[in-house]
Design goal:
The chain is an alpha/beta fold and 131 residues long. It has 4 helices and 4 strands.
């Protein structure tokens, strides 16, 4: 059985899609919420960036990174549907994963199966875990 985690759900959509679009922020957050409940995790909060591209630096996500670095944060993991919700740029994605790893905050992409991870994402992960 998985250890119960205190999680922050994060969703991002570059366009303001309708609520029934599978890539809308609402659908991403609903999917994460269902996953968290199914796996017995505690949802501490939900955060979304509407209308921001994956390479935009003016997003709520970067305020979340300030919380990641904080000693008094109240969460153990950030859950997203898949890596491009953080960034579509491997350098930015790698930096974010590195910051989280150093702080001991797990980043979970709950919809990604290992066999479907794009090669550029695998390369980013490999760079983060190298010592």
């Amino acid at each position: 059985m998985n250890k119960t985690k205190r999680i922050i759900a994060y969703a991002r959509s570059a366009t303001l899609k309708g609520p029934n679009d599978p890539n809308s922020c609402m659908e991403q957050l609903l999917s994460i919420s269902e996953w968290a409940e199914h796996n017995g995790h505690i949802m501490k909060s939900m955060l979304a960036d509407y209308g921001h591209g994956g390479n935009s630096l003016s997003r709520n996500f970067f305020e979340l990174l300030d919380q990641v670095k904080s000693e008094d944060r109240d969460f153990d993991a950030i859950v997203l549907t898949e890596p491009s919700r953080i960034a579509r740029n491997s350098i930015l994605l790698g930096n974010v994963l590195h910051i989280c790893a150093l702080a001991g905050v797990e980043v979970i992409f709950h919809k990604i199966q290992p066999s479907t991870v794009p090669s550029w994402v695998k390369n980013v992960f490999a760079g983060v875990v190298r010592k």
